[in-house]
């Protein structure tokens, strides 16, 4: 169930919006200040934020900035007055996904929220996230801390094979067949060297390639000590 963050200092509007979203099957977290909104982002699994810009203890921009810095995948819709075009432009420039002007029709707001959640779902299907690493299936590229990581075609194929089964052991034989089946004369040592190169590429990603003796390799978030209870592939 999706959770909507509402940042609005009008108690009556918050009450109406809460009733609207709850009736449509959403969870709601409401706040009246920028400080409360930033705190809510860390305490709740927010799926989408609806922000008024004029809040106590800061502004909706403070929450927007926090979202883009720490939760870049959360869609943001800004609620604005009709005569604040500069604020609308500023909000979009700072990373808001959409805006709606007050007074607005509740059915329009719902439609905009559903549209943003659909886009988020579609984008999520294309991404595999582990630690600070994001792998994009469609483009076969990856980023580390938001920066593109340049990999060779073999390194990319190895990463894909591992990240599609995070915290699971992928057998050496399966990896070798996937990566070198079309290369005559390739030896198992080639796979070891490839794993070594990819480990170096993934530095600062918050992920590690763990060797499971006698079986193969596993990609997981860094913990410091190899997990001896790793799940075997099915």
What would your notes on this structure say?
The structure is a single chain. This protein folds into two domains: 123 residues, Rossmann fold (3-Layer(aba) Sandwich); 91 residues, Arc Repressor Mutant, subunit A (Orthogonal Bundle), CATH 1.10.10.10. It is of the alpha/beta class. Helix 3 links the parallel strand 3 and strand 4. The chain is built from eight helices and twelve strands. The longest helix has 21 residues. A five-stranded parallel sheet has the order 2-1-3-4-5, sandwiched between helices. It has a four-stranded antiparallel sheet with strand order 6-7-8-9.
Task: Compile the SSE list and pairings.
Blueprint: E1 3-7, H1 11-23, E2 27-31, H2 34-43, E3 48-52, H3 60-70, E4 76-81, H4 85-93, E5 98-102, H5 106-126, E6 127-130, E7 133-136, E8 141-144, E9 147-149, H6 153-163, E10 170-171, H7 172-180, H8 188-201, E11 207-212, E12 216-221
Parallel strand pairs: 1-2, 1-3, 3-4, 4-5
Antiparallel strand pairs: 6-7, 7-8, 8-9, 10-12, 11-12
Helix pairs in contact: 2-3, 6-8
Using brief descriptors, characterize the structure shown.
234 residues; 4-stranded antiparallel β-sheet; 12 strands; elongated; Arc Repressor Mutant, subunit A
User: What's the architecture of the largest domain, going by CATH?
Assistant: 3-Layer(aba) Sandwich
Strand order of the largest sheet: 2-1-3-4-5
- Tally the helices: 8
Number of domains: 2
Q: Give the tally of β-strands.
A: 12
Strand content: 15-25%
H-E string: EHEHEHEHEHEEEEHEHHEE
Q: Short summary of the structure?
A:
With 234 residues, the protein is an alpha/beta fold. It contains 8 helices and 12 strands.
